[in-house]
Design goal:
The chain is α+β, with helices and mostly antiparallel strands. Helices cover about 50% and strands about 15% of the residues. It has 27 helices and 23 strands. Strands 15, 16, 17, 18, 19, 20 and 21 form a seven-stranded mixed beta sheet that branches. Strands 4-5-10-7-9-8 form a six-stranded mixed beta barrel. The chain has a four-stranded antiparallel beta sheet with strand order 14-22-13-23. Strand 1 and strand 2 form a beta hairpin. Helix 12 (about 325-365) packs across helix 13 and helix 25 (about 735-770) packs antiparallel against helix 26.
Length: about 800
């Protein structure tokens, strides 16, 4: 025995620990193939966990990139009878700012604008804000001053760092120079630092910020026009609960003062980080649970492999015990080896996670905010290290305990071959395999259910025909045009002259583009003669041109379409969808009834006659629920910015140059944005469901592979331990098919038992959490059937190879080994 071995037998203290570490390291190097197998097995689980933590860290855990961001809050208007969050009206914001003693408040809102005069015209996304936004956020410009005011109070603008570099060549002299937005001149007051973004959201980064002295004067007295986003900062020493209580009192006072517009209108104050993370937290929790199951499967796999290896090393361990090593010392040696294996697995996991980060950034770019911040940084590496140590603690004790119980006499008596069926190590190996399959069942059923749900979403039509439809966004600058409806009408006429274009229209709020375009005063309608409704549903208001329903293939189930005669100065008309008729009329024929929006009532305007009923078409893309919608003639309710939809014969993208020419024939400075097919747009609306299903399916596939590998390894080990028994049975006349069935049956039984335990766990989880369990439907027959087939196939394959090997054993080989 070498010096290290003697040290293992007699050393103590620091010297013995060093000796154990050296011996453990040499053992891993000496058995490099086994070490590599363990490292890959652990690395897959640790790498998946580290990669998901990198996403979680960037999206949910990392504070917002503003000063003392934990004190930033978002404020929403909410109705007592409907908790749906709404924006805030201009008068309400002014009252909040004047009466609040716990919050500093700033209002803001998005606007698309066209910049001209500095190269090619370009549509930019701007944020208008009222208040000291940058002081509230605690961010200072890198150039200039955000509060700069030009001569004669000339409007000012603050540029993003990206826009400054891209359009102004990063010139410091840009501050104080004029730029033209929508035909109006602004003075550049400042340039924000690189990486600064506000507001933080999934898409549409902000190009510039425009400070206002007031929002649109037309909103000054429109207390019901809830169009403004509000961000606030808790003042020093103020808790969120105090701010909420104060805002509840303010809302109550406003309700008493303005019952027509503010009755039952409350305020919801929520942390800004929670608002930014949104549903991402819930989705990432689901994925984190999947990663946890995957990691447990990897640990069980490694534990079973180490148990098998411990049994192979039984003589070595027993001999060291005979030379004086205590059971505690032997257990410590194997625990150190497990710890080293865990750390090696952690290194492999960090490498795999780092390789996956770039793919994750691309995958999540359209689904998660702050996806560009996903990275393997110090916090993520620390997490990987802790997970590596935790996995070592999970899989290390089993082989260590087996080593501590090793007896030299018993080891020599078994001679390394005749392990009885009742050996504790063998029973533990079988239990670990059953546990792996149970965990794999949990993960596979969850992933299968989610993938099946995603597939069903893809099959549910949005209520319109997206084939051969080109979509694009158009904004006519208010400084150049006095009538946006007339500009859109001219564009539609030019589009219809393009050969191959069958119809064109505007007015659809396209899927995956912003929030619901609810009526600017109230999300409710009033229908004369309609039965009393105990609970009115929110209603979307969409202004559309004639031909809109034909362009998208939305059926008109009653009445007529809008015509060219439905213009300003003529009686108001409206078309409702079937969902609105069900919600407000309970099956009555809506044709001829008169409909009013709450905003019209408040302004003393007349009602509109319902002239048509359209089929239900969702604005959220495939799988979204139909909501009540009021369609109005675009000429009677125009907007400066709206999407166009163009129906073509053939590939819509082939018409992009012709469509661009039609736009530029009206205005050479008008850019067109977001040009894509409607099918692509609908696909984008399912980005969140897609990445969840993809990740869970990937983790489930890895888990199934690990479970199959564990089953194969344990059965191979158990079959090798029964070599003598099998050989004797064959010598006494047993058929090879019987031996094959016996070993194969072991694997199938383990798989069936693991599946039953896994399904029992699913049933318990469903009973405890119900359908709210992370949005995954557990009782999915299609998913259960698919999982059963997959698990049985993997179990048969993993069991068949050891069974075949056992059935081919020859008695001569057994005698030679003895």
């Amino acid at each position: 025995m070498n010096r290290v071995d003697h040290g293992l037998a007699r050393g103590s203290g620091v010297a013995s620990l060093v000796a154990d570490l050296r011996h453990g390291f040499r053992s891993l190097v000496r058995h490099s193939r086994f070490t590599a197998l363990i490292a890959v097995t652990l690395g897959l689980g640790i790498g998946a966990g580290t990669a998901v933590f990198a996403v979680l860290n960037a999206v949910v855990l990392q504070p917002l990139p503003f000063r003392e961001s934990a004190r930033l809050v978002r404020l929403w208007s909410v109705r007592a009878e409907n908790p749906t969050k709404q924006r805030v009206s201009y008068p309400d914001l002014r009252d909040w700012q004047a009466e609040s003693r716990t919050l500093d408040l700033v209002g803001y809102g998005g606007l698309d604008t066209v910049m001209t005069g500095t190269g090619e015209p370009e549509r930019l996304h701007a944020e208008l804000f009222l208040g000291d936004l940058f002081s509230l956020l605690g961010v200072s410009p890198s150039l200039g001053a955000a509060h700069l005011v030009g001569p004669s109070d000339e409007p000012t603008v603050i540029l993003s760092h990206e826009l400054w570099r891209r359009r102004f060549d990063a010139s410091p002299s840009v501050v104080g120079t004029p730029i033209t937005l929508d035909g109006k001149q602004y003075i550049v007051a400042a340039v924000m630092p690189a990486g600064f973004q506000f507001p933080i959201r999934v898409a549409a980064p902000v190009d510039l910020w425009i400070p206002l002295k007031q929002f649109n004067p037309a909103l000054a007295d429109r207390r019901g026009a809830r169009l403004i986003d509000v961000i606030g900062r808790l003042r020093s020493g103020v808790a969120l609960e105090q701010a909420q209580a104060e805002m509840d009192l303010i809302a109550s006072r406003l309700s008493d003062r303005y019952p027509d517009t503010n009755e039952s209108i409350g305020v919801r104050v929520m942390p800004a980080l929670e608002e930014v993370a949104g549903d991402a937290s819930r989705s990432l929790l689901l994925v984190s649970c999947a990663v946890g199951l995957l990691l447990l499967i990897g640990c069980a796999n490694v534990a079973s492999l180490l148990l098998a290896r411990t049994a192979v090393r039984e003589k070595e361990i027993a001999l060291r015990a005979a030379l004086g090593a205590s059971g505690k010392r032997l257990a410590r040696q194997l625990l150190i080896e497990s710890l080293l294996l865990g750390l090696v697995g952690g290194v492999v996991g960090c490498f795999l996670a780092d390789c996956a980060v770039e793919a994750l950034r691309g995958l999540f770019a359209a689904a998660l905010p702050r996806a560009d911040a996903i990275a393997v940084n110090g916090r993520v590496v620390a997490f990987a290290t802790m997970v590596s140590l935790a996995t070592a603690v999970l899989f290390g004790p089993a082989p260590a305990a087996a080593a501590a119980r090793t007896s030299l006499a018993r080891s020599l008596q078994r001679s390394g071959q005749a392990v009885s069926r009742g050996t504790p190590a063998r029973r533990l190996c079988q239990a670990l395999v059953v546990g792996e399959i149970a965990l794999a069942t949990l993960l596979l059923v969850g992933a299968g259910s989610l993938v099946h749900s995603f597939w069903n979403l893809r099959q549910i039509g949005p209520g319109f025909d997206p084939r051969n439809v080109l979509t694009l966004e158009i904004t006519w600058p208010a400084g150049k045009y006095t009538d946006p409806a007339e500009a859109f009408a001219r564009l539609r006429a030019r589009l219809l002259q393009i050969p191959g274009v069958s119809s064109a229209s505007t007015g659809l709020q396209l899927p995956s583009r912003g929030e619901a375009m609810l009526d600017d005063t109230s999300p409710f309608v009033r229908i004369e003669g309609a039965p009393a409704s105990p609970e009115r549903q929110p209603v979307a208001r969409l202004a559309v041109q004639p031909g809109f329903f034909r362009t998208l293939g939305i059926p008109l189930t009653g009445g007529r379409d809008f015509g060219e005669d439905d213009r300003p100065g003529t009686p108001r008309v409206a078309i409702v969808n079937e969902a609105l008729a069900r919600a407000y009329l309970f099956g009555e024929d809506p044709i001829g009834k008169r409909l009013s929006l709450d905003s019209w009532v408040l302004r003393g305007e007349g009602a509109a006659e319902i002239v048509g009923v359209a089929g239900d078409a969702t604005r959220g893309g495939a799988g979204a629920e139909a909501e009540p919608i009021v369609y109005l003639p675009f000429a009677q309710s125009p907007a400066w910015s709206a999407p166009m939809v163009v129906k073509t014969h053939g590939d819509p993208l082939a018409f992009v140059p012709l469509v661009r020419d039609a736009v530029h024939a009206i205005d050479p400075d008008e850019p067109i944005d977001d040009v894509e097919t409607l099918e692509q747009r609908i696909g984008g609306s399912l980005a969140g469901d897609r990445w969840r299903a993809l990740l869970l399916a990937l983790f489930a596939a890895v888990a199934e592979g690990l479970a199959g590998a564990g089953l194969y390894a344990v059965l191979s080990y158990l079959a090798s331990q029964r070599t003598r028994e099998v050989g004797i049975r064959l010598a006494l006349g047993a058929r090879t098919s019987e031996v094959f069935r016996t070993v194969l049956g072991q694997g199938i039984k383990a798989a069936l038992l693991g599946m039953l335990i896994g399904l029992a766990g699913l049933a318990l989880a469903e009973r405890l959490a119900g359908s709210a369990l992370l949005g995954v439907t557990l009782a999915d027959p299609a998913a259960l059937f698919a999982v059963t087939i997959i698990l049985l196939a993997v179990a048969a394959l993993a069991s068949g190879l050891p069974a075949r090997r056992a059935a081919r054993i020859h008695l001569v080989e057994i005698l030679k080994s003895e």
